């Protein structure tokens, strides 16, 4: 009998590397550079709130899978997003592969804070590489890091990276190739249980960090940096809030004044296509579908792309330069007054894009009660899907003229007021919740202030492109589909013999609209608006597209649909327009938001409460607006 051959197990698994580090040290920027992904990068803590997987091949041809994780100050997590990082690294997520190796990313300008996590993670015993990121900034500030010595002290390879420069990841790739393959041969290691980490007292870790810094880092001439000088002004108790208010104001002015030309071009283009298609086809169902259903509906939404991009341009610049956490500090006092934590600022600000990322960003809030309140008021922030609705009604009813000697554009001013109304009511709701639920004693805000830097053009371009894509995909899918459905419901059945109203009045949508109008008549919405409200629940912009279709089909005579704004300004009274604006400040948010609220809070209860309270607020606000406007003779 021969010796039993040892069983050779063929390992075909691709090694999984986790990018781990403090918030805002550049993990996502590095992830994007390694994988070519386009995850969101911005200059504040807590941008990434979910694990994201990608893959790349090293110069030697080894394939890797890589995980981008939410930033964490420590593995003993205190917030839900940190908990994700801890669970992934510790292999505690059911059904998920635990990482085989770790790339610990640190901000080279702030090793004192960052090394603590490195020492903690080291105790897991996994193969590790330290990426000294942002060395470009450290060099500029005269911070000298002896990486060879640091490597010796930490007992792991140390490489310098600049995640925002092309080629800035090369050293890391080389280091990975020099490591033993983490899943094959002697490289394979299992992580120590997380309990091993908590066993070491914080003071001891702190002492070790100090020792390593003394040995390997010299702060030659790190004479306070420019950021501190800027902060003297930006965080000044008087100048600070004035600058913040001026910035906000400027954004909404720009949304109207800069967008005028590109909007005209888009609507001109859509109209030309409509006329061309209309001219080529004879009167009939297909022509009606193409011209009134698709072009009239989708075109009227598409036209708002420039305004959305301008709004995001400003948000992206503010995010990338490092202003946001400062604004959170400026507003902390006001927010504390209504029972919100200063940490709610960034989730609430994200809700201006869409309530969904806003609700999710609330994961960075430690206290469960504060987190819940933030989630409940997030949809009151004006999401970008509401912008087209506002812009349409404003364009139709508010004259486009300058006030205050040409300094202020009236339409921009009204838009600013609407956004402000959303913010104000969110604060009011938070205050009411505080009265009913009681508040935590207000904790002072602890938030890391990143250094300012100029926005990276690549980030900016990528962010705008992503936004444009999201919007265009929405227009091309959900909105288009809903428009076709709506056109169908609005066109059939046709008008009976001797009809006195336009055919849509007799259609399925018309009947539905007339039924709903019983409920909405008291706040000034006729049956045509009611038709638009229903698909508006699926995606708010659809309300605009739906109005486009409804009014195109309501037109008598055979003129084709032209621009929507003049059309509705003829059909609605001023009180109706104001009432609809008030409605959309509060309008029960879209289904997608409600389902995310259910997921994030873990129960359907809060989604129902949210839908209920927002509907009640919307109806009340519209009712008051409508009645007051009539009484004032508007
Ligand atoms: N100058 C410089 N800036 C960098 C570098 N790496 C990242 N940044 C910037 O630092 C900021 C933070 O980058 P992110 O990649 O979002 O950081 P993160 O670690 O993913 O942050 P969280 O997801 O919040 O934990 C962004 O403004 C980046 O543009 C670098 O090497 N040099
Ligand atoms: Mg990130």
UniProtKB/TrEMBL annotation:
**Keyword annotations:** Membrane, Transmembrane, Transmembrane helix
Q: Where does the record place the FeoB-type G domain?
A: 14-182
- Top-rank taxon: Bacteria
What InterPro entries has UniProt attached to this entry?
Fe2_transport_prot_B_C, FeoB_GTPase, G_FEOB_dom, Gate_dom, GTP-bd, P-loop_NTPase
The residues that cross the membrane are 238-261, 289-318, 338-360, 372-398, 410-433, 471-492, 504-523, 530-552, 572-594, 606-629
SUPFAM superfamilies hit by this protein: P-loop containing nucleoside triphosphate hydrolases
Asked whether the keyword Cytoplasm is assigned, the reply is no
This protein is called Ferrous iron transport protein B
Give the species this sequence originates from: Massilia rubra
């Amino acid at each position: 009998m021969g010796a039993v051959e040892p069983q050779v197990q063929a390992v075909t698994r691709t090694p999984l590397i986790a990018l781990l580090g403090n918030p805002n040290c550049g993990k996502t920027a590095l992830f994007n550079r390694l994988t070519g992904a386009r995850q969101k990068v911005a200059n504040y803590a807590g941008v990434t709130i979910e694990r994201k997987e990608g893959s790349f091949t090293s110069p030697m041809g080894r394939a890797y899978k890589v995980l981008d994780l939410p930033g964490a100050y420590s593995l003993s997590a205190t917030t839900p997003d940190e908990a994700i990082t801890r669970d992934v690294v510790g292999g505690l997520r059911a059904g998920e592969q635990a990482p085989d190796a770790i790339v610990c990313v640190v901000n080279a300008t702030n090793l004192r804070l960052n090394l603590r996590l490195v020492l903690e993670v080291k105790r897991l015993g996994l193969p590790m590489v330290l990426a000294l990121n942002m060395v470009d900034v450290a060099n500029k500030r005269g911070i000298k890091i002896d990486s060879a010595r640091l490597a010796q002290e930490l007992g792991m390879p140390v490489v310098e990276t600049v995640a925002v420069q092309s080629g800035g990841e090369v050293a890391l790739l080389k280091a990975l190739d020099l490591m033993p393959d983490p899943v094959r041969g002697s490289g394979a290691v299992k992580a120590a249980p997380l309990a091993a980490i908590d066993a070491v007292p914080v003071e001891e870790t702190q002492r070790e960090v100090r020792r390593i810094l003394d040995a390997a880092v010299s702060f030659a001439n790190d004479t306070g940096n420019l950021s501190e000088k800027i902060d003297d002004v930006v965080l000044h108790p008087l100048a600070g809030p004035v600058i913040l208010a001026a910035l906000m104001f400027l954004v909404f002015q720009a949304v109207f004044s800069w967008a005028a030309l590109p909007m005209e071009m888009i609507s001109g283009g859509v109209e030309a296509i409509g006329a061309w298609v209309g001219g080529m086809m004879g009167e009939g169902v297909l022509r009606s579908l193409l011209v009134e259903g698709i072009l009239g509906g989708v075109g009227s939404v598409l036209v708002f792309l420039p305004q959305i991009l301008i709004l995001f341009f400003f948000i992206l610049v503010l995010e990338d330069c490092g202003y946001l956490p400062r604004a959170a500090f400026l507003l902390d006092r006001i927010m504390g007054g209504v029972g919100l934590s200063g940490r709610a600022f960034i989730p609430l600000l994200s809700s201006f894009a869409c309530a969904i990322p806003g609700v999710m960003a609330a994961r960075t809030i430690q206290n469960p009660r504060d987190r819940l309140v933030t989630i409940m008021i997030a949809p009151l922030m004006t999401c970008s899907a509401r912008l087209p609705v506002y812009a349409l009604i404003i364009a139709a009813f508010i004259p486009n003229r300058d006030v205050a000697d040409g300094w202020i554009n009236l339409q921009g001013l009204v838009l600013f007021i609407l956004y402000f109304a959303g913010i104000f009511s969110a604060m009011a709701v938070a205050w009411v919740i505080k009265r009913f639920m009681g508040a935590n004693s207000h904790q002072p805000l602890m938030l890391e202030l990143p250094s300012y830097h100029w926005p990276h053009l690549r980030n900016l371009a990528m962010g705008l492109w992503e936004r444009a894509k999201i919007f265009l995909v929405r227009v091309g899918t959900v909105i288009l589909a809903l428009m076709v459905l709506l056109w169908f419901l609005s066109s059939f059945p046709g008008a009976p013999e001797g009809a006195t109203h336009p055919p849509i009045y007799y259609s399925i949508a018309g009947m539905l609209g007339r039924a709903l109008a019983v409920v909405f008549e008291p706040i000034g919405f006729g049956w045509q608006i009611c038709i638009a409200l229903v698909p508006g629940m699926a995606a708010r912009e659809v309300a605009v597209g739906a109005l486009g279709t409804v009014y195109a089909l309501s037109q008598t005579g055979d003129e084709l649909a032209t621009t929507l704004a003049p059309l509705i300004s003829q059909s609605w009274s001023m009180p109706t327009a104001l009432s609809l604006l008030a409605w959309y400040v509060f309008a029960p948010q879209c289904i997608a938001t409600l389902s995310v609220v259910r997921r994030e809070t873990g129960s359907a209860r809060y989604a129902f409460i949210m839908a209920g309270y927002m509907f009640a607020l919307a109806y009340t606000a519209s009712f008051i607006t409508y009645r007051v406007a009539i009484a004032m003779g508007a």
